[in-house]
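Sanity check

After download, print the first record. It should look like this:
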Amino acid sequence: METQAITFDRASAMPAPTWHFMKSNEARIEIPAGLEIAPDVSASVPPLARGAADEFENALANAQLAWDEEHPMPTEAELAERAAFLAAEADATYGGTAQSDYQANADAIEEARSLAMAFETGVGDEVGAYLRYAAGDRIVVAAGLGEAIEASVCVRAVTGAISAAAIDVVAGEGSTVRLKLHVDSPEETPADKSNGAPAGELAGAPADSADAAHAIAGTTLRVFADAGSTVDIVRSQTLDDGVIDIDDMGLFTHKRANVSVCQTVLGAGTSFAGLAADLRGAESGLVVDTRYLGHGSQKRDFNYIVRHHGQKTECNLKANGVLAGASEKTLKATIDLIRGAKGAQGSERENVLLVDEGVRNKTVPVILCNEDDVAGNHGATIGHIRSEQLFYLASRGLAQDAAERMFVSAIVEQAAIDAPGEEARRGIVRLGERIAPGFAELFDDGDAGVRTSALESEEDR
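Expected structure tokens:
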């Protein structure tokens, strides 16, 4: 069945819009007409860990019961006091308290007291629903009390088609789940001309068809981490330039649960990565480590939303990337410290290396706060390769183009060294060879662990 053209105008939207002239509040995802729905997905899940289709919904419903018990409904006196306060605000001589759409929606969600209503994914409900439709049957990974589970899912792009996987992870109390996701192009892929740079070139001007795509690949993931559980998500993406990648995640943490997410974005002409987390349980935590590369006319869009509901919750968002050629990147990171989350701490940090003058980088860190006993920190280090660095490398015999290529290749090589498995490593090496011919020679024996990085090798010459 071929798809109709669909446009999602408010995908990966920030919860609280910022300056409109930055054009970074949301992303526009266009699904071209004529694509087949043909998921090419393989999964390795232990038989005892294959959960029912409604495993996530049941876990969230049980969490709702526990939440209601710990946070009883306001008494009639409390409701009357709030109503009187709102009425007084509305009649105030200065015109009352003005609320933005964000504030009104946020208040409505909190007052509804529904965990299901509050749950969200980073790219958005509409896009997530579309990916689930395209994916078909859901892959469910469920770990029981105190169990340790390891699973993997591989999504391969299909030329002229949408290939997607819908995955639920339910980690029972005290359990440990490690999930490896790999999104890759097949070994033999038609040469793509949508990028401004031919295969093997790292820089180039944007082409007229930079937004064209011959395939879409993606994953939509929901995670429920019960009390005291640990969930590790590792996602690597090594798609060719003519593919759009969509990475959609939503996370829920119970008491003392900890979730870590490591994302490596190396390929795809356009990639959208969104993550939303509800740190509901006290002392629960989230760590997100993102590594990305942009070259040619590639586009990257990241959207992270972390809502702290529980007391003493903690999140740490880290991103490191390299932009070359005429690539573009937007990173939106929102930490929402909600009333009642006393002792919560949130931190966001990004380091971006701009290799060429033609790149466009937008970094939008946001901290929303409705609680006094909390801590929020954000910062970014963004800069070009320093002239003294280029001079030093030139004195060692490296021309500027070669030096810039070395910086770009280094992030791919590090990704290959840190790859979570052989399948992911093969995909990274394949992509590395495509953008920098000769790259595969560094890993010709398949043992990335004994290789010295290209950066170190060049400096030692």
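If your output differs, re-run the checksum step. Summary of this record's structure: The chain has three domains: 35-54+116-384, 74-112, 387-461.
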